[in-house]
Write a structure and sequence with these properties.
This protein starts with 14 loop residues before the first helix and ends in a 14-residue tail after the last helix. The protein has helices at residues 15-30, 36-43, 48-55, 73-94, 99-123, 128-134, 153-160, 167-173, 176-181, 184-206, 208-233, 241-246, 257-264, 268-275, 279-290, 295-310, 318-342. The mean pLDDT is 90. 65% of the residues lie in helices and 0% in strands. It contains 17 helices and no strands. The protein has 356 residues and is an all-alpha fold.
């Protein structure tokens, strides 16, 4: 996309005119995020029916009412995600420019995951209606209505993908032939690189507190992707070092010196050595290798910290992004606890990541 026009949001004296009401609603939603006491109570549940009863005393209320017993963890995840989607749409449907565009940018990340799911399913000749049911509801797009005419990746590219909001990223990075021949994770990372860079530039265009808060969050997301791409590429014969470096987003604390070194890394030990000079990431890697805490958990913890800190600020859009990500982490926590209860692994139940 790249070129932005139109309004910017207000500052100290004018922000509340268009966006104050929705920010107030969002901060009200934030009050419903589960507390440490709620997590302690959930961890004391003996079965999923007990969890269902406890949720009634939280912001989730009777969101599992009407669900037949026995309840499954997939049902809990689906219903909790549905609640998040309802809250997102409540904000998005009342937003005016430029908040509406900012909210759309949040949804593009989920659209990328849905597009990758559709490409993978089409390549493996899966039923289209089955694929749509598995798509994330925050990443649905209007051209999904034309999926019934899709029989191969050419149809998917020409009839569906070029009509999505992701079309500028797809047309700028991928051809119809790429969908058939390129590794699906390379497609995902190629689209995500274009998306992150565009979102980052849009936040810079908005300026003010939005730029201040979102720059830190998006730089971290870019670094996380660069590190994961590097580690996951070891042993992958179809991804050369040059190709790997092309997938790194052009932003972040690691960019450009760190990403250049990551592009030449041969193994995990070299990645650890590269990150040693970055105080933000130094402990992530040591914790994630020799500890019960994984590298992914370290990333999630820092993501929660950045998104939690966004609520210490005002007169910017960072809180809208942060709230969605904190709720996502909450859903992961709930599913983790539910899985531990279902599989009778209560000794691992406390390995969730607290939010507030």
């Amino acid at each position: 996309m790249g070129l932005f026009g139109g309004r910017k949001h207000g500052g100290l004296f004018t922000f509340n005119k268009d966006d104050g009401y929705l920010e107030a609603i969002l901060r009200g939603f934030k009050k419903g995020i589960l507390s440490r006491t709620d997590y302690n109570n959930l961890c004391q549940c003996d079965n999923l029916e007990d969890m269902k009863m406890h949720f009634i005393s939280t912001d989730y209320g009777d969101f599992l009412a009407g669900e037949p017993s026995p309840i499954h963890t997939t049902t809990i995840a689906e219903k909790a995600t549905g609640k998040l989607v309802t809250e997102f749409n409540h904000i998005r449907n009342q937003a005016v420019e430029p908040l509406s565009t900012f909210m759309d940018f949040i949804s593009y990340g989920y659209m990328i995951d849905n597009v990758v799911l559709l490409i993978t399913g089409t390549l493996h000749e899966r039923d289209i209606s089955e694929l749509v049911d598995k798509c994330h509801p925050l990443g649905l797009f209007k051209s999904m209505a034309t999926l019934s005419v899709v029989h191969n990746v050419a149809d998917l590219y020409n009839n569906v993908l070029i009509d999505t909001p992701l079309a500028p990223y797809i047309q700028g990075c991928l051809s119809e032939e790429d969908l058939d021949e390129m590794n699906i994770e390379i497609i995902r990372n190629t689209l995500y690189k274009a998306y992150l860079e565009d979102f980052y530039n849009y936040c810079k265009y908005l300026g003010g507190q939005t730029e201040l808060i979102m720059s830190d969050i998006l730089k971290f997301e870019a670094d996380r992707r660069s590190i994961n791409i590097t580690i996951n590429s070891f042993g992958a014969t179809e991804l050369s070092k040059d190709d790997r470096e092309k997938l790194y987003p052009s932003l972040g604390l690691l960019y450009p010196e760190g990403t250049s070194k990551l592009g030449k890394a041969e193994d995990v030990d070299q990645v650890r050595g590269i990150l040693e000079v970055y105080s933000t990431y130094r402990n992530f890697f040591s914790d994630g290798v020799n500890n019960e805490k994984s590298l992914e958990d370290s990333f999630f913890e820092h993501e929660v910290h950045l998104n939690r800190m966004a609520f210490e600020d005002q007169y910017g859009y960072g809180v809208f992004y942060a709230y969605i990500k904190l709720r996502e982490q909450e859903i992961r926590n709930i599913v983790w606890i539910a899985e531990c209860i279902s599989q009778n692994m209560k000794q691992k139940m406390n390995q969730y990541i607290p939010i507030f």
